[in-house]
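Standup notes
- DV: blocked on the single-chain target, sequence here:
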Amino acid sequence: MDKGLFLGNVEVLKQGKRLLALSYDIAPGAVLTVMGPSGVGKSTLLAFITGTLAPDFSARGVVRLDGHDITDLPAHKRRVGILFQDDLLFPHLSVKQNLMFGTRYSASPSTTEDPMLIADLLGLTSLLTRAPATLSGGEQQRVALGRALLSKPDLLLMDEPLAALDRHRKDDILPYLEQL
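- DV (later): unblocked, structure below
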């Protein structure tokens, strides 16, 4: 994730009654926090960047990642990972299978150690055979975070992904995210 992100010339993004205008240069390795009250469009902005949501009218502007226009690329080709507040695990897959799903869209091949390192870091090794429905909210968020990391995105967007984690687990995970 050492690539830069440029959101440029985005004059208006509109979804329903929400309007959003922005233009940012984000340096490689930087962390940008978007804050605001509930309902102003923070999650919508992330969905536009990832390509999982199209504006409801012809927005003028581009989303560039490492100098490349990704505006018209489908979501799965953007190399942008997203971790929403709602973890969206695949209910028919085990924890291990959910983690391994992240490797399917990785630009670089994962080694067999990668999923186990992530599982260990996130405290998931004892949960690998379990179904998502049997996990707590914090455990589900950790699985979703692991899956996102295993996709090795050029950019990782997170929408309150640590909200259900206790302080101890957050303290374990935040330094790792900073290192990435």
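- Follow-up: The CA atoms of residues 121 and 176 lie 9 Å apart.
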